[in-house]
Write a structure and sequence with these properties.
Mean pLDDT of chain A: 93
Distance between the termini of chain A: 17 Å
Strand order of the largest sheet of chain B: 2-1-3-4-11-10-9-6-7
CATH class of chain B: Alpha Beta
Low-confidence stretches of chain B: none
Distance between the termini of chain B: 12 Å
Strand order of the largest sheet of chain A: 2-1-3
Radius of gyration of chain B: 15 Å
CATH superfamily of chain B: Class I glutamine amidotransferase (GATase) domain
Strand content of chain B: 25-35%
Largest sheet of chain B: 9 strands, mixed
Number of domains of chain A: 1
Structural class of chain B: alpha/beta
CATH architecture of chain B: 3-Layer(aba) Sandwich
Shape of chain B: globular
Helix content of chain A: 25-40%
Number of helices of chain A: 2
CATH architecture of chain A: 2-Layer Sandwich
Helix content of chain B: 10-25%
Oligomer: heterodimer
Order of helices and strands of chain A: EHEHE
């Protein structure tokens, strides 16, 4: 069963207070040298049947209408075979 | 005059909004997110709260609630619609209003009495205020930072669509101190602070919020 991953990130010009909070915690934990942290979202969509171009186009629409808000966020869609584990 | 107030799963201020409608002299009508029915109301309030637990993004899931199809269609025909706090977020997600609301720049939830200046008193929800009036109503939000690109901001300012601005220190990082905006017809208004919590002396910082609701009644009477 194919898996499609949608990554959503705030646009570079949009302030990310959550990322700032994470970055602020790093020196307190003894981790130095991280100049910025941006926090995003990863969606994993399990697709029934074959992953056709039509299905990918549809997932693009899903990413654009629900998963992201194009006013403040960018998204990236890519297919990922389920066999690949990390 | 009948003004509907939509209840979504997670709405908090629907009861206060209905009460404010009643105090203003109109009949409040409870509307349900799952209905394709506005019950013939003359105006709609989308109340504050945490609809759908703010999952995904504030207002992102509520935007697709069945009742929103009807609200968007009615708003496009000129029906007065006021979105307060989470309601403002839903209006932005619905593309009835431009821009978006993000987490407060200082990362803390804020809850306090807030001074505002009414910048546009020609909308369906602000016509009972004097131009430039300064009012005090309640502000309570975690994601109240209004953002939009520079071109959109210049367009909003140029067309007088900034309805209210924060007076004094910026409480949440909203660009240009924007607390509320309107659509181009002025029938749809989104406001981050809560006028429905300032409609009587006993339970709020005063009665400065009441005129939002009496304004809608006046706007409807003049149609």
């Amino acid at each position: 069963m194919p898996r499609v991953v949608v990554d959503v990130m705030l646009k570079p010009e949009i302030l990310d207070p959550q990322g700032k909070a994470v970055q602020g915690a790093l020196p307190r934990l003894g981790f130095e040298g991280i100049s910025d942290v941006r926090q995003g979202k990863r969606f994993e969509l399990e697709v029934d049947g074959e992953l056709t171009d039509e299905r990918l186009t549809e997932i693009h629409t899903i990413a654009e209408t629900l998963l992201s808000n194009p006013v403040i966020e960018d998204f990236h869609v890519h297919a990922e075979p389920v066999e690949v584990t990390r | 005059m009948r003004i509907g107030v939509v209840t979504f799963p997670g709405s908090l201020d629907d009861v206060d909004a209905r009460r404010a409608v009643r105090f203003a002299g109109a009949e409040p009508v409870a509307l349900w997110h799952g209905d394709h029915d506005l019950q013939g109301v003359d105006a709609v309030v989308l109340p504050g709260g945490f609809s759908y637990g703010d999952y995904l993004r504030c207002g992102a899931i509520s935007r697709f609630a069945p009742v929103m199809t009807e609200v968007v269609a009615a708003a496009e025909k000129g029906m007065p619609v006021l979105g307060i706090c989470n309601g403002f977020q839903i209006l932005c997600e619905s593309h009835l209003l431009p821009g978006a609301l993000i987490r407060n720049d200082h990362r803390k939830f804020i809850c306090r009495d807030q001074r505002l200046r009414i910048e546009n008193n020609a909308t369906a929800w602000t016509n009972e205020y004097d131009a430039g009036a300064e009012i005090t109503i309640v502000l309570k939000n975690g994601e109240g930072g209004f953002v939009a690109d520079e071109a959109t901001l210049d367009m909003l300012e140029g067309e007088g669509r900034v309805v209210a601005r924060y007076v004094g220190a910026n409480p949440n990082g909203s660009v240009r101190g924007i607390a509320g905006i309107a659509n181009d017809r002025g029938n749809v208004v989104g406001l981050m602070p809560h006028p429905e919590h300032a409609v009587e002396d006993l339970t709020g910082p005063g009665t400065d919020g009441l005129a939002f609701f009496t304004s809608a009644i006046k706007a409807l009477a003049n149609v």
